[in-house]
Queue: 2 jobs
Job 1
Amino acid sequence: MQNSNLFEGLAVQKLAAENPISYIDIGTRGGFQDDLAPIAFAVDAIGFEPEKEAFDKIDNENSGPWRNAKTLPYAVGRLTGKQVLSIPEDPVSATLLKPNPAIGERFKKSQFFNVQKEVEVETRNLDEALKESGCQFHDYLKIDIEGAELEVIAAAPQTVEGLLAVKT
């Protein structure tokens, strides 16, 4: 991710820095996507990583290029409570849904569907997760959770109401 501020010294930099954007990243394993990197100096990023092993690798002390960044140790889903996270060969495709290996075989992408392990994880619905995080404004939502996106969005009316953009 690029760390330079493209707006350094311009009037828009001050305006953006005084009015930060909240970036909610559901499906953060491997790090935040760089969609908002050109304005990272004015972005507060919140991510979620429910698997303890992967969460422990995240450096929550270093926000990187973001104005602020934190990752929380639970999954975002339709329900609050405990759910089973299925982790396939390629763990970026971890999901709260039951993977269908036949789909992976059909498209020659079995690494995304062949489950290697299942772990019980804490989940929150998005409205509750953001309330717990202290995030008051909801601007940009990136959600990539292997098919459960609509469930998350449907269960988060307060968050969805204020969003400026959604990337699925």
Job 2
Amino acid sequence: MKLPFIPSVTSPTETPDAAFWFIFRGSDLLVVENGETAELPASSEDFTLLRQHYLGKLEEETADIHCYAAEVDRETQPPAGMQFVGLRQLFTRLSNNYLWLAGRAVQIIDWDRTHQFCSRCATPNEILDYERAKKCPNCGLTTYPRISPAIIVRVDRMIDGVPHLLLARNGRWQRDFYSVLAGFVEPGETLEDCVHREVFEEVGLHLKKVRYFGSQPWPFPNSLMVGFTAEYASGDIVLEEEEIADAKWFTVDNLPNLPTKMSIARRLVDAFVEEVERERDA
């Protein structure tokens, strides 16, 4: 995904007439209802804002559009024809560019809301005007928006000459679907080390040929998903039962319910399917 977006923290001197506003009530985004699709409001004039941040400019075909993130209090009601909706529910209704910008916006709003005071001396923080950061005027501690790196990995295996991939079902998921394995990076750990550790901890398998696949910001609440592929090396599936309810080897012909196509998890699975089908057609 290439986002035609120029990030910035310095707002125009005058608020432009044309702008995209990412207005949140908690973590829900205000959208203009338009049947099966949704649009962003072009103004914040109807609201009393708790906070706002300039995001930058989105490059459109006709002009560059300035973008803002803002928050209203939890008692705010949407105007007629508008609704506050969670980002997950907007996956198929909002365009990709707006959806991922909304992910950026909600993380900045959450950071501003939860870092109003210095964590070292409790002095009210000040927002810097030259970078996305806050600084304590008393002790000088600088605080940046939190980003939590996590790995997500597709494990491939050849069984009796047939390509398989490992998919697992998390016991905490409400929906009955399977996905590739994932986990957060620990302090002092490389991404590759995290891949090996997470897979061994969750299903007891050893890997080889770990390769980078791609990445995706995942604002639930502030993850950066770093995707890999790997090959099975050894071991039998042994579940970490506190987290993993089931894990199996699947072929392209017997795939279970899968994550949404908006996720890098689905991109990893779809890439596996494409590779297998390409080999079949060769």
